[in-house]
Amino acid sequence: MEKLQDALAKARADRAESTGLSAPAVHTGAPGVSGISDGTDVWAALPEATPDPAHMTRNRIVAHAYSQDAAAFDILRTKMVLQMRKNGWRRLAITSATPTCGKTTVTCNMAMGLARQSELRTVVMDLDLRSPSMARMLGLTAPRDITRLLDGEVTFAEQALRIRSSVALSLAKTRTADPTRYLLGQQTDEALAAIEADYAPDLMIFDTAPVMVSDDTRAFLGKVDCAMIVACAERTTVKQIDACEREIAEQTNVLGVVLNQARFTEEETGYGYGYGNYSAKG
Questions:
Q1: Are 138 and 162 in contact (CB under 8 A)?
Q2: What CA–CA distances, in Å, run from 179 to 39, 83, 100, 154, 215?
Q3: Which end of the chain is less congested by CB atoms within 10 angstroms, N or C?
C-alpha cells in the first residue's frame, strides 16, 4: 500500500508541475437554494424495496448491516461524506480505469451503508449504461429504465425505488447501445436538476463506466463535483490510475482512490483498511 501511495504521489506531483492545471470549479446546481422543500413527503412516497440480505452477501454487498466485513465500507462512507461536506460537494461519480475492478460493488456497499444513516438522504444512479449491474447485484428490478428518466419520458417518482427511508435508487433494466447521447444531453442536466429541486438529496452518487474503455464517463464528468477511482489490487497499475486521474482532473475533482480486493491481515490494519488512500475488500 505504501509503495502504491508513493508512486501515485510522485505521478501527481509530476503531472501538476508539467501541466499547471488548477482544480475544476465546484458544481453549482446542487440543492439548498431558497424555496426548495425538505422533500420528506416525496421521499416517503417512493416505492420501498427490500433487497434480500443473502442475495446481497453472495454478491459481496455486506454494508446493509453493521459487521466487521462492513467496517471498511463504513470507514470509506464516513470519509467520503466528511470530505464532500468540507468541499461543498454533492455529486460523486464512482469509476475505475478498466473493467472488473469492483466499482459497482463499492457503489452498492456505499448505498447500503448510507441507507443506515437515516438523516442523510442520498440518490444513487446506475449510469454504467453499456453494462449496468446494480439491479442484478441488489436483486431488484426498476419499475422503468433509467434512460426513460434521462430522456424526460418519466419522472423520478415513476422510476426510482427507495431503500429504507433515506436512499433512492435509479436503476437500469437493459443495456444501452449509445450511452453518450444520454450522458451528454441537456435533458440529463434537466433530469438531475429536477431531482435536486424535488427531493433535495444531500448526496447524489453515480456508478459510471470505466474511464479507459469508452467515452461514456468522459461525457458525464462535467456534471459532477468529484469522482472516486476504484483500483483492483495486483491488477490495476499505477500508470492506469495516473491516466484515469488525468482524464478526471480535466473535468472535475478527484476525491480519492479505493484499493479494492486488497489482501490485508488483521495485524496490519484490523479492518482490511489502508491509510492515505481508501481501501476496501470487495
A1: no
A2: 30, 30, 19, 18, 9
A3: N
> Which residues, in sequence order, are bridge partners of residue 229?
95, 257
The rounded distance, in Å, linking the Cα atoms of 29 and 34 is 13
Cα–Cα distance for residue pair 235/248, rounded to 1 Å = 20
What is the CB neighbour count within 10 angstroms for residue 180?
Answer: 17
As a whole number of angstroms, the distance between CA 45 and CA 150 comes to 20
pTM of the model as a whole? 0.84
249 phi and psi, to 5 degrees?
-65, -20
The single residue listed with the C-alpha cell 460537494 is 89
What digits encode the pLDDT tens for the residues 139-171? 999 999 999 999 999 999 999 999 999 999 999
The grid coordinates listed for 64 are 446493509
Residue 78 CB neighbour total at 10 angstroms: 12
- Between 238-249 and 2-19, two packed helices, what is the crossing angle to 10 degrees? 40
Q: Which helix (H) or strand (E) holds 57?
A: helix 53-58
Q: Is 199 exposed, middle or buried (0-12, 13-18, 19+ CB in 10 A)?
A: buried
Residue 116 banded pLDDT, cuts 50, 70, 90:
very high
CB 240 within 8 A of CB 212: yes
Can you state the angle between helices 68-87 and 103-115, rounded to 10 degrees?
Answer: 80
Residues 37 and 31: their CA atoms lie apart, in Å, by: 10
**Rg (Cα) of the chain, in Å, rounded?**
18
* Phi/psi at 257 (5° precision): -120, 130
Q: CA distances (Å), 208 to each of 1, 48, 94, 179, 238, in order?
A: 25, 24, 6, 11, 20
Secondary structure (3-state) at 265: coil
